[in-house]
Amino acid sequence: MQIPSWLERCGRNAPDVVIVGALLIAGWKYTSGLRSIMDIGLTDETFYLTRGIYPDRVAELTGVPPVVEWGPLYGMWYSSLAKISPEPIALYYLNYAIMTILPPALLYTLLRRYRVSLPTSSFLAFFILITSANFSVWPKVNHFTLMILLVFLIVATIPKSWTLGFGILAFGCLLASYAHPEIYLAFVLCFAISVGLFWFRERTFLNATALVSLAVIAGAVGTYAGYPLSGKQRSFSAFCQHFAFNWQAWKKEYFLAPDTDCLQILQMNFGSVSGVGQALLRNPAVVMHHVVTNAINLPNALVSTFALHPTTTAAPNPLPTGFLPFNMRPIEACILLALVIGGLWLGRKTILSHLRVALRSESRYLIFVCPVCAVIILSCLLIYPAPHYVLILGTLLLAAVAILLDPFKGRQVRWSHAMVIALVIVAVAPNIVRLLGPGPHPQPTLSAIKSIRSLDITAKIHLLTDYYGYATYLPRNFSGLPSYYKDIPFDDFRRKYDINMILVDNFLTNDSRFRNDEEWKTFLQNYECVGFVRLLLPDDKGVENPHALYVDKSILPTNSQQEHEGTVAGANLMSDSGFEELTAMHDCFINGTRTADQAHTGTYSWKMTQQQWYPSLGFVGKYADRNDASRALRVRPGDKYYIEAWIYPKSTNVGTGSLSMTLTVRDSTGKQPEAYPHGYSGMPARGQWTKIGATVTVPDGYDLGWAGITVMTDVPMGDAFYIDDVMVVREQEN
Asked: Which residues contact 264 (CB under 8 A, 6 or more apart)?
């Protein structure tokens, strides 16, 4: 019996289906648990998310108008994905995983379509999955653009007509340009090539219909949504920021920050300009210096973005992941390139024979990607060879290398081979959480969002932050105001925009618009005078340098949960945790003082020395005045408080004994006796800093608390202890 042709085709494609399935499973394994170790990335990626789920509130939440340059198609993708996962935080992580998993599977399909062998296609797709160019590169709009290009490079192989092939690719570039506007130039090039091929070689009715339809679609979409390159805001902003990075590298000037002071740096070099063309006319020598610098850095960027480094260290320009990628030093990139070139030279005879055959039989892909790669290289030279540009360029170039130099070209692959390769892919695929090892893995943005949510504020909030995007993940009564809106003195700025909540981090503190404003400095020192309170928002995993949240008292709820400044769940209730300002309610009975003798971080710590009466240090609540309920921390039965401190027992201490760190609780009605729920009790090693911590649960019948540490009576007289970086946190409810 003759086997149906469709069944025969299914049999031939079955190994590829198995490999694609294995790549998808490996991708799921690789990204599983990423929410526990990766922070949320604000600005660009959050803008696209906002555009997808809150299209009518984009400017209100981010401070950025939803112009056509800012990827409307990627926003539509988020809108579709939100039907599966509507909650913004969950949606962010879901999209991040999908954008990591799908490109390798599409690349495998592309390679097989261009007749690359199954083993080579599998290896390259798996390499793309686990390389730092995939997971770490952000924003993910570039992965989305790459996916569109890969899909249409696959579809372009279907017709035999070159005119239709370039027409299909032109349509793909048109779509991709509404995610990545620079790709619109590739659309123009591909469309022009298609028209030229039609006019000089392939004049058919089908080709004419296809080209006219494409022109009508491009015109209609451009009229309705706008043309991706019609505005200058996005491209000029990208040029401005990346020129500032190059300028700082040339001048070795660090008094200005490239990310926040880029406009000032641009004005120093070009005067008042609003476009790349104007900058070129004003100072062509500096622009050419910028282009040459980018050209020199491009090979290193390609290698360091894709090559796996033996250690995983933080990037010099921190990405939202906080732990990837690494940055390969120039000498390492040169060594790796030299090894590749040396290998090609040694095998030049075999390689050249393969190359001649491949250039004759597989030229279609090379010709298709030329206009796309040319546009991306131009972007890298004019703007910067940043990882998100290099991702697309490098992936297309690697595919070209695989097509030209496939070592297994023409070899038959059996079912058993495909199954073995699939099993190896799944087995070898790492998990990003295990790769990073034990934490803590900082998630300051996510922690700040959770802590602000726990305030349960219902009033209208105008939130000032350095980076826009926080408001997208907060309740609907929040609107966002990015720091770059500030162009007047702070007090006028605060009143103009009715700012009633300010999230302060290191970036805002170092922003020259604020750093050099005396009114801003006065506000930070005397925020109570204008009706604000200060809440510390540390990362929920205990990392240092926490955010600080300044909130207008009038918008805080009046329930007992908010009666004491700083009692938001997840916030550090110790307002001066490092003893740098002496603003906290410290309460040391005997022989306690601030000192610069030792410090875990900063300049100062608190020193306690054992004397006749054992000394205690109150972290939160004035323990000496515990008969005064107004000086206490308001607690509730069942509340859990995490208390943490860094302790340095002096190396000359002679005894062991113990330190006790707990939450002393009282009943304001006097019915219950004072209680000391179990906390930390022990003695850290002498002569070194040790972090101690304990979670304390408030027992039934108590509503007042005082957190602190006590040197117990079994510690010998004269033994001294330094305390620093204290944290007292009411744990968030699940």
From this structure: 256, 512
- Name the residue type at position 424: V
Judge contact between 443 and 538, C-beta under 8 A: no
**pLDDT 10s digits, 64-99:** 777 788 889 999 999 999 999 999 999 999 999 999
* Model confidence pLDDT, tens digit, residues 243-297: 888 888 888 776 777 777 788 888 889 888 888 888 888 999 999 999 999 999 8
Which residue type occupies 564?
H
Q: What is the pTM of this model?
A: 0.74
Amino acid occupying residue 613: W
| Residues in Cβ contact with 480 at an 8 Å cutoff, skipping those fewer than 6 apart | 60, 61, 62, 63, 463, 465, 468, 469, 470, 471, 472
Coil/strand/helix, residue 41: coil
Whole-number Å distance between alpha carbons of 54 and 60: 10
261: helix, strand or coil: coil
Tokens encoding 324: 């990837």
Classify domain 592-730 at the CATH topology level: Jelly Rolls (2.60.120)
Give the full edge-to-edge strand order of the sheet including 640-649: 592-595, 605-609, 720-730, 640-649, 690-697
Domain residue extents for the chain = 456-557, 592-730
Q: Which amino acid is at 476?
A: R
Burial class (CB in 10 A: 0-12, 13-18, 19+), 26: buried
425-462 exposure pattern, b = at least 16 Cβ within 10 A, e = fewer? bbeebeebbeebeeeebbbbbbbbbbbbbbbebeeebb
> Worst-scoring range by mean pLDDT, 565-574, 635-644, 674-683?
565-574
Q: Is the peptide bond before 325 cis (omega within 30 degrees of 0)?
A: yes
**Residue 714 and residue 683 in contact, taking contact as beta carbons nearer than 8 Å:** no
Structure token digits, residue 403: 């097509």
Residues 6+ apart with CB under 8 A from 199: none
